[in-house]
Write a structure and sequence with these properties.
Elements (H helix, E strand, L loop, with lengths): L3 E10 L2 E11 L4 E5 L6 H9 L6 E6 L2 E2 L5 H7 L1 E4 L11 H7 L11 H7 L1 H4 L11 H13 L5 E4 L8 H16 L3 E5 L3 H7 L2 E6 L2 E6 L6 H8 L9
Parallel strand pairs: 3-8, 3-9, 6-7, 7-8
Antiparallel strand pairs: 1-2, 1-4, 4-5, 9-10
Helix pairs in contact: 3-6, 6-7
The chain binds adenosine-5'-triphosphate.
Adenosine-5'-triphosphate binds next to strand 2 and helix 1.
Protein name: ABC transporter ATP-binding protein
Keywords: Amino-acid transport, ATP-binding, Nucleotide-binding, Transport
Family: Belongs to the ABC transporter superfamily.
Length: 238
Amino acid sequence: MSTLDVNHIDAAHGQLKAVHGVSLNVAPGEMLFLLGANGAGKTTLLRSIAGDHRAYSGDVSLAGADISALPAHLRARAGLALVPEGRRLFPQMSVRENLTLGAATARDGPWSVDAVYDAFPNLARLDRSPAGKLSGGEQQAVAIGRALMGNPKAILLDEVSLGLSPAAVDLAYAALAKLREMGLALLVVEQDLSRALRTADALIVMCEGHVTLRAKPAETSLDALAAASFGHIEGEAA
Ligand SMILES: Nc1ncnc2c1ncn2[C@@H]1O[C@H](COP(=O)(O)OP(=O)(O)OP(=O)(O)O)[C@@H](O)[C@H]1O
């Protein structure tokens, strides 16, 4: 059974339809990448799954339970975490305080501040530092750590590498690989097609709100991912 099942989500911003009937599922220990150019609808889809944006139709299930009717905080309590674009930390609050906010779901599980520091050793020495003083990579680690503090079953990550140095991106993905080994379901929005192709268990490409490609890495190529990002649907005559 999948951890996350998303069935035929439609979402809009006013008159603009941003997501057209998108379905996907993510198994335990699977990393599914969601790709597409700016404006493809990736963030709107992630926010709709998390309950931060109201989809006007479609269903979301987590570990077999339908959570479509729940508001965002109850989806989080059910075990669905979102690491949003821009990370949305509280810059004046310390690393520890930001992490502790993630425990508001009150779900039981293995994650604590110390467990996050084991997973991201560079954060431990920053325990009392204001999050706003951290580098982009350190802030991304705090944002992922805050999601883990809620002991989620599935994590949605928006634009993991945005604004990070190559070394910081490597560190973030090393941490995600460990979470995958622990059996978490990971849905990752990424602009770097090559990184996605190297890292993914499965890939979905969107263009203008539609899915244009679904593939396993071994079945596709950078060129096919790029073409799908600009709307070419595999199998269709050019
Ligand atoms: N708050 C909003 N109000 C109106 N339109 C919006 C809003 N947010 C997004 N859109 C529009 O919805 C469409 C999908 O945007 P979305 O941010 O979901 O795409 P994206 O693939 O995540 O792109 P990006 O990589 O730029 O974040 C775009 O046409 C965008 O302009």
